[in-house]
Amino acid sequence: MRRFAQLIDAMNRWLGLTLRWLALLMVLVQFAIVVGRYVFGVNSIAAQESVLYLHGALFMLAAGYTLLVDRHVRVDVFYADLSLAARRRIDIAGHLLLLLPAMAALFWWSWPSVRNSWKILEGPISVGGIEAVFLLKSLIPAFCILVTLQSLAILVRLVAEEFEA
């Protein structure tokens, strides 16, 4: 099981370190859009939508990495003052009772929309936009899978630590 956790960690680490470059690309594309519009009077709906696609890919596909490096949003009013064992138990309960069911529900409820989008190869959001909304929607189940796998990898470690303690 620990080997499984290490493989998931490695995959999400690679994704996070690779996808971080999308942030720079997103800034450069947005800068080019602004310069094109206000300096040269040129506008492109597809270029504007590409920023949306880059943003979606960055945040949805790197969420597992964010969970791995423990940089996700945490409301820790009491958590920080608790013992390591108490925090570990809260983390186990949070993964089992909140995160994993939320990912399952999001996957379950989004799948029909993603499936239908692929069935018709759903076109652009706006006229003249990128003809790949089906790819954008596919980020939702990919997000669910990556976060679920990372959550399971974390759970393997937390449960192992709980039994070792």
Automatic annotation (TrEMBL):
Residue stretches making up the Tripartite ATP-independent periplasmic transporters DctQ component domain: 26-159
Q: What GO cellular component entries does it have?
A: plasma membrane
Q: Which InterPro entries match?
A: DctQ (IPR055348), TRAP_DctQ (IPR007387)
Q: Which domain of life, per UniProt? A: Bacteria
Oligomer and partners: The complex comprises the extracytoplasmic solute receptor protein and the two transmembrane proteins.
Q: Main role?
A: Part of the tripartite ATP-independent periplasmic (TRAP) transport system.
- Quote the protein name from its UniProt record: TRAP transporter small permease protein
> Which organism does this sequence originate in?
Notoacmeibacter marinus
